[in-house]
Amino acid sequence: MELEDHLFFLCTQVVYRRDRAINDALRPLGMLNTEWRTLGTLVRKGPQTMQELAQWTAYERTRLTRILHGMEERGWVERTGAAHDGRAVLVRIAPRGKKAHAEAEAAVEALTQDVLSVCSPAEVARVRKSLQAMRAQLMRAGH
C-alpha cells in the first residue's frame, strides 16, 4: 500500500493541515488552536479535572498545564481544587474565555464548512461514525 493511501497517514495529514489552517484563522484573535480546543471542551463539557480535560483534548497533562498557564494569565480559565478530591485540580472557563471562544468559533466554523464542502453530508456522517468506532476501540485498549 502506498503511504498516501494508508488510512492513518491520511488522518494525520488532514488533522495536521487543519490545525495549521485553524492557527492561521485564529492568529488575528491572538489565540492558538490548542487554546481554542481547550476552551471548546470546557464550553461543551463544563468544568473538568485536569485528567478529564486531558482525555477530551487528547493533550498530555504536562502540555495541557503549559497551555492552561497562558490561558489563565489572560483570564480565559480558572483553576481551583476539586471539591470531591483535594488533590485534583478543576478547570473551568471564565467569562472572558467564553467571549474569546465565541469569537474564535465563527472563524473555525467557516473553515470547517469549507473543508467539509468537498464531501456529502452522508459521507461526513459515515466518516464520523467510523472515527468514533476507532476512537472507542483505542480507548478500550487504554490509549
Strand arrangement, major sheet: 1-3-2
Number of strands: 3
Helix run count: 6
Order of helices and strands: HHEHHEEHH
How large is the radius of gyration? Answer: 17 Å
Shape: globular
Kindly name the structural category: mainly alpha
First-to-last CA distance: 26 Å
Main beta sheet strand tally, sense and closure:
3 strands, antiparallel
Strand content: 5-15%
Mean pLDDT score: 93
Q: Helical residue percent? A: 55-70%
Poorly predicted residue ranges: none
What's this, in brief?
The protein is built from 6 helices and 3 strands, in the order ααβααββαα. It is mostly helical.
Care to describe what's here?
This protein is mainly alpha-helical and 143 residues long. 67% of the residues lie in helices and 12% in strands. It has six helices and three strands, in the order ααβααββαα. It has helices at residues 7-26, 33-45, 50-57, 61-73, 95-116, 121-140, and strands at 48-49, 77-82, 85-93. Strands 1-3-2 form a three-stranded antiparallel sheet. A hairpin with a 2-residue loop joins strand 2 (77-82) and strand 3 (85-93). Helix 1 (7-26) crosses helix 5 and helix 2 (33-45) crosses helix 5. The longest helix is centred in the last third of the chain and has 22 residues, at 95-116. It starts with 6 loop residues before the first helix and ends with a helix. The mean pLDDT is 93.
Describe the protein's topology.
Elements: H1 7-26, H2 33-45, E1 48-49, H3 50-57, H4 61-73, E2 77-82, E3 85-93, H5 95-116, H6 121-140
Helix pairs in contact: 1-5, 2-5
Looking at this protein, list some descriptive labels.
globular; mainly alpha; 12% strand; 143 residues; 6 helices; 3-stranded antiparallel beta sheet
